[in-house]
Specification:
about 140 residues, PH-domain like, 3-stranded antiparallel β-sheet, about 25% helix
Length: about 140
């Protein structure tokens, strides 16, 4: 599930933001209801389990990939990493849903919420550095 915020073609200088869909909060809400049943029937310390849905919601809100003409930024729960497009050798998809950028120095960068379906947005944002698989 991904949500995409893209600007008009005339605003090419603005970054493209790819993030998780806010609908993922519904799954967290159902998970919280399940935990609430445990909390209400268990000892008081079990109430600490309610922090799990709060962390999951923060994860959904924070996770995103921001791409513009020069750089791509992967934002996770606790940090952000910005890489220039010139430092990226290519993108790959394995069993994980999200893309991973292969860096020229041998490293790898997970691109949160970037799926095969959102690659055309990265093509536009990167000025063609990422090939569009649908052409």
């Amino acid at each position: 599930m991904t949500g995409v915020t893209s600007q008009s073609p005339s605003a090419a200088a603005k970054p493209v933001v790819i993030r998780m869909s806010p609908m993922a909060h519904f799954a967290v809400g159902f998970f919280a209801l399940g935990i609430l049943a445990l909390v209400l029937s268990g000892p008081a310390w079990v109430a600490l389990l309610l922090t799990i849905p709060a962390v999951l919601s923060a994860y959904i809100v924070r996770l995103r990939t921001v791409a513009d003409r020069d750089t791509v930024t992967a934002r996770t729960l606790f940090n952000s990493e910005t890489v220039r497009w010139e430092d990226i050798e290519g993108l790959r998809f394995e069993k994980a849903v999200w893309a991973r950028a292969q860096l020229k120095d041998g490293g790898e960068l997970m691109l949160p919420a970037v799926s095969f379906a959102t690659l055309p947005l990265l093509t536009e944002a990167s000025a063609g550095r990422v090939p569009n698989p649908y052409r």
